[in-house]
Amino acid sequence: MDATIIAAPPSTKNKGKSRDTEMHQTKNGNQWYFGMKAHIGVDEVTGQVHHVTSTAANIADVTEVPNLLHGKERHVFGDAGYTGAQKRASKRGRKFWIAAKRSVVKAIEDPKLREITEQLEHAKASIRAAVEHPFRVLKRQFGYVKVRYKGLAKNGAQVTTLFALVNLWMARRALLQAT
User: Which InterPro entries does the UniProt record give (predicted)?
Assistant: First the structure.
């Protein structure tokens, strides 16, 4: 599971002289963004998106965990934004593999323990990398980097449709070989 920020026009040059009231701003790294977040749940084997939710950009990633799980997963991988996810979602035989924050890893004083922890984090990141592929297709192949409508409902519907198309795009080779 992961999330990406999709920008909204920050301009106030309209009749109401206001921004979209359903979009909010958030800080990612040292950069501020105004818009919405698209949260996805991805199958770890196929890389296909199985759940999509849309929220304002200021909503924490961890709050969407119950909406991104289908119930049959045995392992759940997430970045540091999902710290505490196991407390929010029903465990039901799931193992949560949430990335440790960099500051926590750097604070480990024992060099051997730090090296082992870094190797574990690298292994978790390698698996989590598959979740980033649908975002690349959405933003680079389809060019969806900015919302097209006002409000979360319309934009959420469009994002859901686009992720269905992302699944087809990512499975295109297997689909063509099957014919």
Answer: Transpos_IS5, Transposase_11
